[in-house]
Amino acid sequence: MWLSYLLVAGLFCSMGGSIFIPQKLFGEVTSPLYPKPYPNNFERTTVITVPQGYRVKLVFWQFNLEPSEGCFYDYVKISADKKNLGRFCGQLGSPLGNPPGKKEFMSRGNKMLLTFHTDFSNEENGTIMFYRGFLAYYQAVDLDECASQPNSVEEDPQPWCQHLCHNYIGGYFCSCHPGYKLQTDGHSCQAECSSELYTEPSGYISSLEYPKPYPPDLRCNYSIRVERGLTLHLKFLEPFEIDDHQQVHCPYDQLQVYANGKNIGEFCGTQRPPDLDSSSNAVDLLFFTDESGDSRGWKLHYTTEIIKCPQPKALDEFTIIQDLQPQYQFRDYFIATCKQGYQLMEGNKMLLSFTAVCQDDGTWHRAMPRCKIKDCGQPRSLPNGDFKYTTTKGVNTYQASIQYYCHEPYYKMLTRAESSESARGKYTCTAQGIWKNGQEGEKIPRCLPVCGKPVNPVEQTQRIIGGQRAQLGNFPWQAFTNIHGRGGGALLGDRWILTAAHTLYPKEHDSPNNATVDVFLGHTSVEEIMKLGNHPIRRVSIHPDYRQDESNNFEGDIALLELENSVALGPNLLPICLPDNETFYDNGLMGYVSGFGITAERIASNLRFVRLPVARREACENWLRGLKRKDVFSQSMFCAGDPSLKQDSCQGDSGGVFAVRDPNSDRWVATGIVSWGIGCSRGYGFYTKLLNYVDWIKKEMEEEG
Ligand SMILES: [Ca+2]
Ligand SMILES: [Ca+2]
Ligand SMILES: [Ca+2]
User: Fold this and answer.
1) pLDDT class of 157 with cuts at 50, 70, 90
2) Which of 18, 176, 281, 372 is least enclosed, having the fewest CB within 10 Å?
3) Mean pLDDT across 431-443
4) Two domains, one topology: 26-123+130-142 and 385-414+423-449
5) Which ligand is nearest to the CA of 216?
6) Is 549 designated active site?
7) Which fold has domain 468-700?
8) Which ligand has the shortest distance to the CA of 158?
């Protein structure tokens, strides 16, 4: 037994002085042969290591070593971090020993050394004693690197965090104060404030270390960026302290403030800057420091509010801003309109509507418009009429008023039955900028020629024999035509000449009809009337019943000449009216035939007229029969004259009209067209009966362009 112990002891001794336990988080360490008695003459150092960042904690669970004074014979020695943590022997209760009990041994690093030493014997008073040795457990416990104080002079395995230390199990890490950047060594911090960005709607910004002195050699840039439409306000706090110079402005250190890239202030000294309204959503603060100084720096509180636009103000009293708000902020808008009769103008441009929106920079996206009074412009001129202002002359703006009138007595305004000329002619410049009549709107009135109202009518009571020279204005409708020789006609309206078809297409006239059509108006003298000029013809309309090749049939002997230009009516040029009933053909009714035809075998140089009665149809038929004539005397014709009187219309008067004064309306009416006869100044004359053709005439005249 003893020997075997020796053997074992020798075995252990030969194994050498120290063993390394592989890194583990926990484990046990025992004396050799434990729990059997340990050998003599033994020495071994066990190196306990745990991973980096941990400490070793060791506790003895069993401890039974030969006790001795000062643990001189057998002992366990513990050391860590090059420090001796104790030397132990004996057991609990032994008077000589120094047992560790439940003491916890802790390393500061990740290594602990346990040396077990025995001497040559274990005996007490000559009796060999047996000691079981020891059993110890160790475990890795976290090293709180941050708790460790870097005051010990001894070389420390870890560099220390310059600013902030954060412990975790198995390690630690460092961080830096705001405005500083952790360097690549993981421990040191350096001021880094070249691109600080703030995007919260409010916050605080301060110089590094505030309110302790800021570091030297700074090039700081603090950018605040908030949403569009917000405006930033800056308020500096106390203390405010930046190195300054009494004479030179901020030569050493300075804080510059930019809003939207524009410098809005440079500050230093100890005077706190005023509150700043940047009117911007982008503010940059630049802070430069030189290599020296110990000022405490600055701190500011920034806040935001929604940007506001200036209150819209009308530029004139006619502009209306709808639903005016007490204030306008980003994205608000307003609508401007004008009072009735006024026009929105943006510069010289007319606007149909106007809306302005408050932009993110606090400005309106377009300038306030103006309201200009609506201008209706010069009123349209009225053919054969005119207008006069009933408001200020020449002013054509909103609410101006004019009165149209026709040139009386030759023209008369066309009105509806219930309307007066003054109502029809009254136009006002409306709020829409258009001249308008109360009933008819924009359409201007029409001035229609007045028919059958000669200014100087022929004296009817006189008894005329053999024809008589007409006075100017007796027959103002009288036209003088020159087509296939002289002819006559009558003015209808102001651009139509009523005549006989045969003046254009004479009977027994075979040659192609390329005759020129000359028309003269407005005088009783041939010489004078020709001086007044020819009226060019736009269109010739022959009645479809007319037969040029039937020499004894003047059926449909009626034609209309449309003048190229309407004529200006006057005392010597007026139209005649058309008949509207059969009473105009009563027997004996006196009518007038005027013309430039042949009288007394001479070509007349003046307009002459005769006064003739409408004749009885039977009398004319009998007269024709007596002459053995086969001429057609149809219901579309009538005859007039008195064979007992030597007066009649004659060649050259053809196309002129048989004019009758209607006593009821005091108008002169053309009841017939001088059509045919037998010789001149003899017997009866035959006339196209106009009453039968009124519809055709009106239809033709309506076709005018
Ligand atoms: Ca011993
Ligand atoms: Ca740790
Ligand atoms: Ca300085």
Assistant:
1) low
2) 18
3) 93
4) no
5) 3
6) no
7) Thrombin, subunit H (2.40.10)
8) 2
Lowest mean pLDDT across 23-37, 148-162, 639-653: 148-162
C-alpha separations of 249 from 118, 240, 255, 264, 321 in Å: 82, 16, 12, 15, 49
The answer to whether the CB of 328 falls within 8 A of the CB of 356 is: no
Q: Using 50, 70 and 90 to split pLDDT, how confident is the model at 1?
A: very low
User: What per-residue confidence (pLDDT) applies to 602?
Assistant: 65
pLDDT for residue 680: 61
pTM of the complete model beyond 0.90 = no
185 is in an annotated binding site: no
Largest pairwise CA distance in the chain: 207
Q: Which of 243, 244, 494, 557 is catalytic?
A: 557
Phi, psi of 7 (to 5 degrees): -60, -45
User: Is 145 marked as binding a ligand?
Assistant: yes
Distance 320 CA to ligand 1 centre (A): 115
pLDDT of 222 higher than 50: yes
- For 595, residues 6+ apart whose C-beta sits below 8 A from its C-beta are 478, 488, 604, 607, 608, 609, 649, 650, 652, 653, 654, 656, 674
pLDDT band at 513 (very low <50, low <70, confident <90, very high): low
Question: Is 518 noted as a catalytic residue in this protein?
Answer: no
Q: How far is the CA of 263 from the centre of ligand 3 (A)?
A: 22
Q: Which CATH fold would you assign to the domain 193-306?
A: Jelly Rolls (2.60.120)
Distance, CA of 361 to CA of 306 (rounded, Å): 10
Q: What is the 235 CA–ligand 3 centroid distance (Å)? A: 23
- Tell me the C-alpha distance between 677 and 385, whole Å: 43
DSSP of 193-261, one letter per residue?
-TTEEE-SSSEEEE-TTTTSPPPSS-EEEEEEE--TTEEEEEEE-S--BB---SSSSSSS-EEEEEETT
The ligand minimizing its distance to the Cα of 5 is: 1
Q: How far apart are CA 282 and CA 239, in angstroms?
A: 25
Output the CATH code of domain 26-123+130-142.
2.60.120.290
- Told to judge if 166 belongs to the known catalytic residues of this protein, a careful annotator would answer no
> Which of 217-231, 402-416, 494-508, 637-651 is least confident?
637-651
Asked if 21 contacts 46 with a C-beta cutoff of 8 angstroms, the reply is yes
Q: Which of 484, 502, 535, 543 is catalytic?
A: 502
CATH superfamily name and code, 385-414+423-449: Complement Module, domain 1 (2.10.70.10)
Report the pLDDT averaged over residues 596-614. 79
Mean pLDDT computed over every residue of the chain:
89
| 495 Cβ contact partners less than 8 Å away, ≥ 6 residues apart | 562, 563, 565, 566, 567, 704
pLDDT of residue 679: 65
- What is the average pLDDT across 506-528? 85
Residue 167 is assigned to a ligand binding site: yes
Number of H helices, E strands in the chain: 5, 53
Domain 308-373 class, CATH top level:
mainly beta
Band of residue 13 on the pLDDT scale cut at 50, 70, 90: very low
